[in-house]
């Protein structure tokens, strides 16, 4: 029934523990890598990837841990596991709605697929943009994992508009009772034209006050317009009232008094008596001595 005790001292040799400079979840985008290193120096290393160096680079999804060995004692130790996850990069492409060959005043819509963020090289941060000028366009996008990529490059070109010339024979100011006072002439080298009044012949007779121009379509499909010419049709001069005082026999007291309404200034008067011109250039004739038919 007796109990006795004794003690002994044991020496534990080898590796107590090992650590690596990564732990938990490590998130990467496709095309990138992370460097994982053993903390401390050991005789021999064996990574879960099969590599046997102190440091490894990981660029694919995997569970990473390290086993190290002490060759003198034959002891080994294993680290905690780091979980490396590699997410895919987005693959954006530009969707073109319309033509990339623009006429002046035209536009084209460029867009891409749905992602979390957008950054066009022209400045906007929206999924689609409206382009009205020439240039090269691309978009950087970021997906839900925070990974980014750039789309293909799209060129938008601006085509030149034709510059048709307008000519006319006659004057831009004419009397309203004139017949075909002015004829407008379009350049017949254009295949398709249209006047401001909607007509499409190469000549246009102007018989009223208005502004006129024409537009022509070039071989590239773009339209351009000529300068505008304003034509003015004036109402004729009207004599509202004529007052005639007969000549007293033997005296030069005859009078013709005109009351004239006209938009023309100044007026020129050319009087005649019995078909013969007289010198007076006035609206009224005074001191007439001779009877006859005045006009």
Describe this structure in words.
- The protein is mainly β and 295 residues long.
- 0% of the residues lie in helices and 45% in strands.
- The chain has no helices and 32 strands.
- Strands 1-3-5 form a three-stranded antiparallel beta sheet, with no helix packed on it.
- Strand 30 and strand 31 (276-277) form a beta hairpin.
With helices defined by DSSP (H or I, 4 residues minimum), what is the helix count? 0
Give the biggest beta sheet. Answer: 3 strands, antiparallel
- Approximate strand percentage: 35-45%
What is the alpha-carbon Rg in Å?
A: 50 Å
Uncertain residue segments: none
The dominant shape is rod-shaped
Structure characteristics:
295 residues, mainly beta, 3-stranded antiparallel β-sheet, 3-stranded mixed β-sheet
């Amino acid at each position: 029934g007796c109990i006795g005790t004794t003690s002994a001292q044991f020496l534990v040799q080898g590796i107590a523990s090992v650590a690596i400079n990564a732990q938990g979840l490590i998130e990467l985008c496709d095309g990138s890598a992370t460097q994982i290193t053993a903390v401390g120096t050991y005789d021999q290393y064996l990574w879960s990837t099969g590599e046997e160096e102190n440091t490894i680079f990981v660029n694919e999804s995997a569970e990473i841990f390290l086993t190290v060995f002490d060759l003198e004692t034959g002891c080994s130790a294993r680290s905690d596991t780091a979980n490396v996850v590699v997410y895919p990069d987005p693959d954006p492409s530009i969707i073109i709605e319309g033509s990339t060959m623009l006429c002046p005043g035209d536009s084209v819509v460029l867009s891409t697929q749905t992602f979390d963020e957008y950054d066009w090289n022209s400045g906007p941060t929206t999924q689609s943009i409206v382009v009205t000028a020439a240039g090269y366009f691309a978009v950087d996008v970021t997906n839900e994992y925070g990974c980014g990529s750039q789309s293909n490059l799209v060129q938008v070109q601006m085509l030149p508009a034709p510059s048709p010339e307008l000519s006319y024979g006659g004057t831009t100011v004419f009397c309203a009772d004139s017949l075909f006072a002015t004829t407008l002439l379009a350049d017949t080298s254009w295949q398709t034209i249209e006047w401001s009044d909607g007509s499409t012949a190469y000549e246009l007779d102007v018989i009223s006050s208005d502004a006129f121009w024409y537009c022509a379509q070039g071989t590239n499909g773009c339209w351009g317009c000529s300068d505008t010419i304003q034509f003015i049709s004036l109402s004729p001069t009207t004599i509202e009232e004529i007052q005639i005082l007969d000549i007293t026999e033997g005296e030069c007291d005859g009078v013709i008094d005109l009351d004239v309404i006209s938009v023309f200034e100044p007026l020129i008067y050319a009087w005649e008596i019995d078909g013969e011109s007289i010198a007076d250039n006035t609206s009224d004739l005074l001191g007439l001595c001779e009877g006859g038919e005045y006009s």
